[in-house]
Amino acid sequence: MLPVRLPAVFSTATRPFRGALVLLLLLLSLTQFSQAQVQLRGVVRDKETKEVLPFASVAVPGTSNGTTTNLEGEFTLVVKSLPVTLLFSELNHVKDTLRVTTDAPLNVTLAEATVVLPEVKVASFPFQLVDRAFRNLQRNYRRTYYGKAFYRQITRIDNEPSELQEVVWNVKSNPARIDGTTLAQGRYAARQAPINLSNFSVYTRKFGLFDPQQDSTTSLALLSPNVEKNYLLELKGIVGEDSTGGVAEIEFETRPEVRYRAQGTVWIDIETNQVVRYRMVQPSFTGSTNNPRQKFENAKLTIEMAFHPGGKASVAPLELMKMDLTTDLTEPGKKPLAINVSSFTFFYDQATTPTRLPYARASLTDRDLDAIRAKAYDPEFWANNPVVKRTPAEDEVIAAFEQKGAFGTMVKKPAPKPGARTN
């Protein structure tokens, strides 16, 4: 290797500069050390039952840095330096902070929040809360967030896994819905089955609490001007009520005279009017397959949305979405098949700075597997990525695929037999 010649100003003959050089290098090394990032890991549990708390929020107060626990209550968060204070929160538990001074694994417990039974209030109170939340979404609908979203979908037929998809999108969203996506990476595993859900993610990408494009005079959404006309509401309690307010838990159901059927629960921050969480069951779900002999019967779609704890902000970006479809697939002359499709989407690395990515809105003509196959598979993208970490139950699904000769990018290819030719 050729010797590297230092500029004359740093040569050994210039002794007056030697001390300055040493000092400069020392300062640079100290700066780099101070900027070194630290990865924190841990588990969040219920203080009394010790059960893990999935989808609990973990954040650095006063910053946009945060994450959410997975289905096993586990989290990974990269911080700039130590010590650091972390804020832990979950809708049904009391918020708590923890001062972290080392990178040792954290075992965090949260006490269950008190649900205060509502005082005698006028019957219109829950309607007022829902209306205020709707007006709040109307005012802030144009607020846009840019980030990433991890989507996982598992299909089961008669309780046997038939399909697994994992996708990372670059995502554009607002306080009510996903506004557009572009595929960053995807992978799948599947086995031969009577049906596959080739565009199930469209329900996640199209559903929203509020859509300004809809005719507000005929909208059947809960968050609309027609809530009193279309819904029955009941205030069940106020979670974590204190001097600053609390989160109202409101059950809703469409009125008997409304043909569209839906029921569920919405949680609204009394002080900020922010929708904190939303859960709806739609028993009147309709769908179809490309086989005219096949029909869906007894279909039920469950939708859940949660938003980042916004503090005193009036709105916040999406934190997670869950979709769960149960139905019977019928075909003349054949035994009905029990179908279950479940998915969840976790949003992360969100900011308000626009990007130049070509976000596309969801279309009913989208085909998830076609999009995944069209994108070159990158194993390094998925390696050691805490966001996409599977639970033990999901690892069992992959193992089941391997045992039944499934195909796809997630399934290990069998080793060649001794003496077999390989290309």
TrEMBL record:
Gene3D superfamilies tied to this protein:
Carboxypeptidase-like, regulatory domain (2.60.40.1120)
The organism's superkingdom is given as Bacteria
Query: Could you tell me which InterPro entries the record lists for this protein?
Result: CarboxyPept-like_regulatory
Q: What SUPFAM superfamilies would the database entry show? A: Carboxypeptidase regulatory domain-like
Q: What is the name of the protein in this document?
A: Carboxypeptidase-like regulatory domain-containing protein
